[in-house]
């Protein structure tokens, strides 16, 4: 989810498409939160690790 967020963020920046920029930021934030929760050992969605 982090990689997809970065790709959409960059595409939105270079192509000047604001919806891609917005979706990229949202996916980047959600992916970062899930990554941090999974890395500290908290189960995310019933899984011990999220990746």
TrEMBL record:
UniProt keyword terms in alphabetical order: Membrane, Transmembrane, Transmembrane helix
Residues spanning the membrane: 6-37
Domain of life: Bacteria
Name of the protein described by the UniProt record: Hydrophobic protein
Organism of this sequence: Planosporangium mesophilum
């Amino acid at each position: 989810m982090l990689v997809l967020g970065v790709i959409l963020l960059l595409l939105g920046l270079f192509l000047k498409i604001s919806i891609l920029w917005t979706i990229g930021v949202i996916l980047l934030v959600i992916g970062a939160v899930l990554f941090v929760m999974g890395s500290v050992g908290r189960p995310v969605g019933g899984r011990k690790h999220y990746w």
